[in-house]
Write a structure and sequence with these properties.
The complex is a heterotrimer.
Chain A: H1 2-29, H2 36-51, H3 59-82, H4 90-111, E1 128-130, E2 133-135, H5 137-159, H6 161-171, H7 173-178, H8 183-205, H9 215-231, H10 236-256, H11 264-279
Antiparallel strand pairs in A: 1-2
Helix pairs in contact in A: 1-5, 1-6, 1-8, 1-9, 1-10, 2-3, 2-4, 2-8, 2-9, 3-8, 5-6, 5-8, 6-8, 9-10, 9-11, 10-11
Chain B: E1 3-14, E2 17-28, E3 32-36, H1 43-51, E4 58-63, E5 66-67, H2 73-79, E6 81-83, H3 96-103, H4 112-117, H5 120-139, H6 155-168, E7 173-177, H7 185-202, E8 205-209, H8 213-219, E9 222-227, E10 230-235, H9 237-242, H10 244-255
Parallel strand pairs in B: 3-8, 3-9, 6-7, 7-8
Antiparallel strand pairs in B: 1-2, 1-4, 4-5, 9-10
Chain C: H1 17-36, H2 43-49, H3 51-69, H4 77-92, H5 98-120, H6 125-141, H7 147-150, E1 156-157, H8 167-190, H9 192-202, H10 204-209, H11 214-240, E2 242-243, H12 250-263, H13 268-287, H14 299-317, H15 321-333, H16 342-350, H17 380-387
Antiparallel strand pairs in C: 1-2
Classes of the chains: A mainly alpha, B alpha/beta, C mainly alpha.
Chain lengths: 289, 260, 423
């Protein structure tokens, strides 16, 4: 059981990372960002292209390039898609982000094939074993990053004036605009940060599993959403905790659900999402339903 | 004269806010009763409790002696409750006649699947429904805009359509939520005549939320005053108008920078 | 064309004979073209274009949920795929006829949608969207991997009925089913159920105060949508003749959402055209000499990208989708003018409403799908009675003497057409 929990926690870190990105966008723009996963995949693809021969750049450089690409992607999405739709009902923007995700995935498919590839980890090596579960250095970095990111964003929103401006913009764009804050720049900031975060998540996850076009959206996005909802869509620490919990739940679920039933992970996630939304829609730590 | 509406001790709380507290009200058949009070007093909340959109925490709502406190909204409509909306219940995407047909929903005799299969019964009933709807529109002077998309019409017209839709539900009691908002003094006066006409020719009972004092004084048989979720006082319009606390409530609300 | 000054939504009765003939001819030509085309195409082409009516039915099924009811469905593969597998299973393992398999598939689709509908009674908007996504994922991973259904990954065979074996015949079958679905949707919107559903889309509370049993009609909408989806799945299955779970993955489900939105929510014609376009895009690219032959293999991979692009364009620039663009054509076919008269356009500009209505809406809808023409072409006599004055004898208590009600004052105006009074 303990090994199951540990395994779940380790898997949950990536959910937590992506969930934090989702909550960031929700806090900043009141929308569910279906393209969050693809920010990661884009970063991974760019890093992989640059890392393999040719041109065979060193991994750390490729990673930076990947992050830059992801951030630019996010800014592009904000400018071309989010801003024009800011006056439409929220569901329009949701569908639009799904469109962005599909567009990104198809571009990936067009530029490369649908094969699975491997991204070289930043730090190679054996790693340690916890409760019988091997933990690679890459995953340790991921756990570390999760903590750092969560802390950084928490401080950002509670201690900095920019963070406050972001919150104000999402709650009342007109009033915020009138009080002199450039809401357009705030919007770009939010999406840029979310994209950067998504890129970090993708680059951390890439070496852990194999990656293929749309892998983040296919494997991580839904559990991450569940984690965000579980933690409370407005709570960053909630996203952190929620993601981890979803990881654990998935592992426990696959133990509990009989072998014969495929897709136990999806079933667990669905059941968890349903339970949270029906029983406590504001999540564990969130404030609004 | 039967007691149409009997409300006892209705209270409802939303989170930390006690929106209504111990509200009692009686509305007799064919009366025109006014409900007044400053903004935020809880008048629309009260209407929502009457129509079943909210279920009160305590108290009872009885219609012709029958307890409907927990009854679902659509059943209350069948019993005879019709209402209008402050923000207008008109669908702006649809035409006026389509809105009217929707409002007649409770009285369409054929079942949903019969309509789907296009049976002759449904065709006939549809024709009757249209005639009834057109009649109401004609009465309200809206025949010309029958086929217009509601979104293209002015606010005043939409208010009339809203009234027409409430009438189309074929009610016994009509709950009107600020029927004169957006109207000038002449129109408001005409509305008073319309309401009396409706009461007389259709045997309607009317309960209305209003701010327009001349209308209330001129048309209502009885008035209740709601303030901060509680009934402040009740009585005939002239007395209520002179009641010191009522005056204080309205003037006080202005002084205090308006609680909501 | 009509010489009289026509206002929008004019009855057919006001048109002149040339006006009517022109409209009938136009509609007739389109219908004829669609129906004669398969006779002139190669079999493999007929096979390819069968995707269009199938997608169109899927689109219409989504339109019931997204267009009429105003809810979002990101997991529609749960209904379509289920219908497909069930249909194949029933035909192959149980040996039942295709004509039984299809409705059974529809029923399973309806049931699946019913379950989701139960959840939809409590959730709304973004959160409901998320649940539909998760529901589709569960269907994908759990349901469509059941060995009995997929024959261990080989795929469930779905044989075509004897009468419609050939590609051409099956295409005609699909078109017939599409017409059937169009009729169902037409009846739905015109009837009490359809109006109730539209009212719910606009505002649930208001609908309830009009007497609409919101729970019942929401569930009904889901079930109808699921039923149509299941039938589409069955049609799909027997078209492909083998059902594999790969046909019902998330990307495909999202493409269906896109094609419905691009088609225009609430617009039957728009949805059919949008869906057909998405379905036929590779076929069109191949058939018409627009791109070099060497690119042909890549074309199917362009579809999602183009789809996403169209979706974004639609959402940002043309929210009503194709349906909105078709409005002049539909208005003309129904007997109105093709172009709005200047005075109508000016009047509309003056009364322009803000894009975001004060009452919260779901996805954007083009103006009413149904032009307000008569339910069934009523004989002129009937119309005369409506526009005539009050009935023969005025109701006894008419107190019209006391002051004038709003609008046209007429004595004894409100005759006993109201059910409660003197019915």
């Amino acid at each position: 059981m303990l090994s199951s929990i540990v395994n779940g926690l380790i898997n949950g870190t990536i959910y937590g990372l992506v969930a934090i990105g989702l909550v960031l966008v929700y806090k900043g723009a009141r929308v569910f960002n279906f393209a969050q996963g693809e920010f990661g995949t884009v970063a991974v693809f760019v890093a992989w292209i640059l890392n393999t021969d040719p041109p065979g750049l060193p991994m750390w450089l490729a990673i930076l390039a990947g992050l830059a690409a992801a951030t630019m992607f996010g800014l592009l999405v904000e400018r071309l898609v989010v801003r024009p739709l800011s006056t439409s009902p929220g569901v329009n923007l949701l569908v639009a982000t799904a469109g962005v995700a599909i567009a990104a995935i198809s571009i990936q498919l067009l530029l490369g094939e649908a094969e699975a590839r491997v991204l070289n980890p930043l730090v190679a090596g054996e790693g340690i074993t916890v409760a019988g579960i091997p933990v690679r250095p890459q995953q340790m970095i991921m756990i570390g990053m999760l903590g750092v990111v969560a802390l950084f964003l928490y401080l950002f929103f509670t201690r900095t004036s920019v963070g406050l401006a972001v919150l104000a913009t999402s709650q009342d764009p007109l009033a915020t605009n009138l009080s002199g804050i450039n809401t357009k720049r705030i919007s770009a900031l939010v999406w840029g940060m979310a994209a950067l975060l998504g890129g970090v998540a993708g680059l951390l996850q890439g070496p852990v599993t194999v990656f293929f076009p749309g892998f983040m959206t296919a494997t991580v996005l839904l559990p991450a959403f569940t984690g965000a909802v579980l933690g409370g869509m407005t709570s960053l620490p909630g996203a952190f905790v929620g993601g981890l919990l979803v990881g654990v739940a998935q592992d426990v679920g696959s133990q509990v659900i009989p072998e014969a039933v495929t897709g136990s992970a999806e079933l667990t996630v669905f059941a968890l999402l349903l339970l949270v939304l029906l029983i406590r829609p504001q999540g564990l730590l969130g404030k609004e339903a | 004269m039967a007691q149409l509406l009997e409300v006892r001790n209705v209270s409802i709380r939303f989170g930390g806010l006690q929106a209504l507290q111990g509200v009692d009200m009686d509305v007799g058949e064919w009366e025109i009763v006014g409900l007044i009070g400053p903004n935020g007093a809880g008048k629309t909340t009260f209407f929502n409790c009457l129509t079943g959109i909210y279920k009160p925490n305590t108290g009872t709502v009885k219609y012709r002696g029958k307890d409907i406190t927990r009854a679902p909204t659509h059943k209350r409509v069948k019993l005879g409750m019709g209402r209008t909306w402050q923000n207008l219940g008109v669908s702006r995407d649809l035409s006026v006649i389509q809105n009217m047909l929707i409002a007649q929903h409770a009285h369409v005799p054929y079942g949903p699947l019969s309509g789907l299969s296009g049976s002759p019964i449904s065709f006939n009933e549809e024709r009757k429904l249209r005639r009834d709807a057109e009649e109401i529109l004609e009465f309200l002077g809206l025949s010309e805009v029958r086929d217009e998309i509601a979104g293209n019409l002015s606010y005043g017209t939409l208010k009339l359509i809203d009234l027409g839709m409430a009438l189309a539900t074929d009610p016994e009691i009509l709950l009107l939520d600020e029927p004169t908002s957006g109207m000038g003094p002449d129109e408001a006066h005409k509305l008073g005549d319309t309401l009396r006409f409706l009461r007389d020719s259709l045997d309607l009972t009317i309960l209305m939320i209003e701010h327009h004092v001349p209308l209330v004084v001129g048309v209502c048989d009885y008035v209740y005053v709601l303030n901060f979720g509680q009934i402040l006082t009740r009585g005939e319009p002239a007395e209520v108008q002179r009641h010191p606390e009522v005056i204080a409530a309205y003037l006080g609300a202005e002084d205090e920078d308006g609680a909501a | 064309m009509a010489a009289t000054a026509v206002t929008p939504g004019t009855r057919v009765g006001r048109l002149s004979v040339p006006g009517i003939s022109a409209r009938v001819a136009a509609a007739g030509i389109i219908a004829l073209a669609v129906f004669l085309l398969p006779l002139f195409l190669e079999e493999f082409q007929n096979n390819q274009i069968t995707r269009a009516p199938v997608y169109a039915i899927i689109g219409l099924s989504m339109n019931v949920l997204m267009g009429h009811l105003g809810q979002i469905s990101l997991g529609h593969q749960a209904f379509v795929g289920l219908g497909a597998f069930v249909s194949g299973f029933v035909a192959t393992e149980l040996g039942l006829s295709f004509y039984l398999a299809m409705p059974i598939a529809g029923l399973f689709g309806a049931f699946s949608a019913f379950l989701l509908g139960l959840v939809a009674l409590r959730l709304r908007g973004l959160y409901l969207a998320l649940i539909t996504l998760a529901y589709g994922a569960v269907a994908e991973e759990s349901l469509f991997n059941i060995r009995a259904l997929t024959r261990g990954g080989e795929g469930m065979p779905a044989p075509r009925p004897a009468e419609f074996q050939s590609d051409r015949a099956y295409l005609y079958l699909s078109l017939i089913v599409l017409i059937l679905v169009l009729v169902i949707d037409w009846r739905l919107v015109k009837s009490k159920a359809g109006r109730a559903i539209l009212a719910i889309r606009h505002d649930e509370r208001v609908a309830a105060t009009m007497g609409v049993n919101v729970t019942f009609y929401k569930t009904l909408a889901f079930m109808i949508s699921g039923f149509l989806a299941g039938m589409a799945g069955s049609l799909f299955a027997h078209w492909q003749q083998t059902v594999v779970s790969n046909d019902f993955v998330l990307d495909v489900a999202l493409t269906w959402v896109f094609m419905t939105v691009v088609g225009g929510l609430g617009s039957r014609a728009g949805v059919v055209i949008g869906a057909s376009f998405f379905a036929l895009f590779p076929f069109i690219m191949e058939a018409l000499p627009l791109i070099p032959d060497t690119w042909h293999d890549d074309v199917p991979r362009w579809v999602p990208l183009i789809g996403a692009g169209l979706l974004l364009t639609t959402l940002i620039l043309y929210p009503g989708g194709i349906g909105q663009q078709l409005l002049p054509v539909r208005r003309w076919l129904a007997g109105g003018p093709f172009r709005e008269h200047k005075k109508d356009r000016k009047r509309k500009k003056q009364k322009a409403v803000e894009p975001t209505a004060p009452v919260p809406q779901e996805l954007v809808h083009p103006p009413a799908e149904e032009l307000p023409t008569e339910e069934a072409p009523a004989p002129a006599a009937d119309r005369a009675t409506v526009q005539d004055g009050p009935p023969a004898e005025p109701p006894p208590e008419a107190a019209a003497g006391d002051g004038q009600p709003l609008g046209t004052p007429k004595r004894g105006l409100l005759r006993r057409g109201f059910r409660r009074k003197g019915a």
